[in-house]
Design a protein that fits this description.
By secondary structure, the chain is of the alpha/beta class. It contains eleven helices and eight strands. Bound molecules: zinc ion (ZN). The site of zinc ion has 6 residues, from helix 5. Zinc ion binds next to helix 5.
């Protein structure tokens, strides 16, 4: 009888604690109100598979020689991005035509030459000091021993052209009087394939204070389908969203339910995931600074890090929808009334 009593008491405490946490989570969910639905739908439509395809065929062409960090092809890729932002009339955070953050040779090892991150920027209309960073690496593996080019169409041409289209959509909105309330940095990173060096350099030399950087949405490979999803290709892996901010996780889900209806696959977000993707691309450098991140990823496939990662194998419809999801998530982060909260400062979780 006594034993049973103790067990019941434990059971009660357990139930009680669980209910309380559930309520906290519900309060976080309820606190997220989707903003500007009509506008978001309008500008989502400016992100098209045709434009993504056109840019990606160029960016992964032979001209850029596999975009190896510090080499001629990578520099041409950086120039291509800079020219794009000039043509689109999207500013640099460093002032006129200064789109490069130059990383000196001394920052690298193994005789890697100086290289550059490419930065473009739209200043927020109401809270310009608060910043959302949308990032993707621009570099890839260069050429193999006999001169074959690693085109890296998926890795990470797909993420690169996604950012170009997202920047264009935000800029179009701004021109029509609907610019983001918070600032957005479009950050094309170099040196990812040699150990996320471009993002490491950025966090050590940030263009804007890291304490005002409220989130990082990082894109690395979103144009293909992996073996797990051959029969269910309307998916994308999301990694990291709930690690630092429960609000970011639920905000991302709400945005997806409102606009994109993609199956968000969280299997690689598991703490015990043996692939350790959370630690393997540029977003982790931001997470290490306490900045909430979402990593968007289609998983590995047979052409991953092979010379056969070419633009004809990209599913442009999928790339379009995934890009739209990232745009809509960034819109919500930039325009919702309250600033995204990290868990350790979120009173809805603490009380
Ligand atoms: Zn990559």
């Amino acid at each position: 009888m006594k034993t049973l009593c103790i067990l019941s008491a434990f059971a009660l405490v357990g139930t009680c604690a669980t209910t309380k946490y559930t309520t906290k989570i519900q309060n976080i969910k309820d606190g997220i109100q989707i903003v500007d639905s009509t506008l978001v739908v309008n500008y989502l439509k400016t992100i098209t598979s045709q434009e993504l395809k056109k840019e990606l065929y160029e960016f992964s062409s032979d001209t850029y020689e596999g975009r190896e960090t510090g080499e001629k092809g990578q520099k041409l890729a950086a120039q291509f991005l800079k020219d794009y932002y000039i043509k689109e009339n999207i500013a640099s955070p460093f002032g006129e035509a200064m789109y490069y953050q130059i990383i000196p040779e001394s920052f690298f090892s193994n005789n890697i030459k100086a290289s550059e991150n490419v930065l473009a920027y739209i200043e927020g209309s109401e809270k310009p000091n608060e910043l959302i960073i949308i990032s993707a690496h621009l570099d890839h593996l260069g050429k193999d021993d006999i001169g074959n080019i690693y085109h890296g169409a998926d890795d990470n041409g797909s993420g690169t052209v996604a950012i170009m289209e997202i920047a264009q959509a935000f800029n179009q909105a701004k021109k029509e009087g609907h610019g983001p309330k918070r600032s957005i940095l479009f950050l094309h990173l170099t040196g990812e394939e040699i150990g996320t060096r471009g993002s490491l350099y950025y966090i050590q030399n940030p263009a804007f204070p890291l304490e005002n950087t409220i989130a990082n949405l990082n894109i690395d490979m979103i144009g293909r389908v992996d073996n797990i999803h051959v029969n269910n290709k309307n998916y994308v892996y999301l990694i990291g969203a709930d690690r630092l901010s429960q609000e970011l996780h639920y905000l991302s889900e709400k945005v997806n339910n409102a606009f994109c209806h993609i199956n968000l696959d969280y299997r690689y977000n598991a703490e015990n995931d043996e692939n350790h993707y959370y630690f393997r691309s540029d977003h982790y450098n931001f997470a290490s600074q306490g900045i909430p991140v979402i990593f968007y990823f289609n998983g590995e496939h047979k052409d991953y890090h092979k010379i056969t990662d070419t633009p004809d194998k990209i599913d442009y419809q999928l790339l379009e929808n995934r890009t739209r999801l990232i745009f809509a998530t960034a819109w919500q982060l930039a325009n919702q009334s309250h600033t995204l909260l990290v868990d350790k400062k979120n009173e809805l979780l603490l009380n």
